[in-house]
Amino acid sequence: MFLNHVWGLLTNPEKEWKAVRAESPGVVGSYISHVLILAAIPVVAGYYGTTRVGWQVIAREVHRLTPESALSIAIASYITLLVAVFVVGKLIEWMGRTYGGKADLGSSVALAAHTATPLFLIGLSFVYPLLWLNLLLGLPALAYTVYLLYTGVPIMMGIPKERGFLFASAVLAVGLVMFIGILAATVILWTAGVAPVVAG
After folding, report:
1. Which of the 8 DSSP states describes residue 49?
2. What's the whole-model pTM score?
3. Which of 1, 79, 104, 187 has the smallest number of Cβ neighbours within 10 A?
């Protein structure tokens, strides 16, 4: 069923992780029931916010992107999110061997996909692209994402909590490196001439 674990992850994560593990959605199942839908939230909200609402820099005029520029950024962002979930899942599976994890690729991708739920949901705030507001809402979502990771790793990987803490810390470090890599790639693309086009 579509998005059937979202509420449980927000209200009772430990119980919901056990349900996800029992369900064993696999890679395709995780994408169809969860990732494809939730990853669209920040993308669609960002498209709307940057083309319709716009943003201001130090109380100057409102800046908006052209629909064409925003659409190409939205498509690239959506693909990046889809690929990132799979890559993190693959890395979780690979690192699982070091920590004695028993999960396969499907469970590893499910862990990555469901852990990202708060970040996908808070992407709705991009409808109003105000930096301080997005940070104010995004930081608690990021903190809860980390909590979901630390809660979910022992259950999904089938390892003790003590070893799960180290495993989750390694996954968190890899996720941060990936995030910095994506930001660096974005800056490189923008300086190479593939920058957003501001309307008017």
Report:
1. I
2. 0.90
3. 1
Provide the β-strand partners of residue 198.
65
CB-based contacts of 61, cutoff 8 Å, min separation 6: none
Residues in the chain: 200
- The residues, ordered by sequence, that sit 6+ positions from 77 with a Cβ below 8 Å of its Cβ are 42, 43, 46
| Exposed/middle/buried for residue 156 (C-beta within 10 Å: 0-12, 13-18, 19+) | buried
Confidence of residue 59 (pLDDT cuts 50, 70, 90): low
Q: Which of 194, 192, 187, 188 is nearest to 68 (CA)?
A: 194
Cβ(35)–Cβ(5) below 8 Å: no
* HEC readout, 63-126: ECECHHHHHHHHHHHHHHHHHHHHHHHHHHHHHHHHHCCCCCHHHHHHHHHHHCHHHHHHHHHH
Percent of the chain with pLDDT over 90: 66
Whether the CB-CB separation of 48 and 127 falls below 8 Å is answered with: yes
Letter string b/e over residues 112-148, b meaning 16 or more CB atoms within 10 A of that residue's CB: bbbbbbbbbbbbebbbebeeeebeebbeebeebbeeb
Distance CA 195, CA 6 (A): 35
Q: State pLDDT tens for residues 109-152.
A: 999 999 999 999 999 999 998 888 889 999 999 999 999 999 99
User: What is the residue extent of each domain of the chain?
Assistant: 6-191
**Res 10: pLDDT:** 94
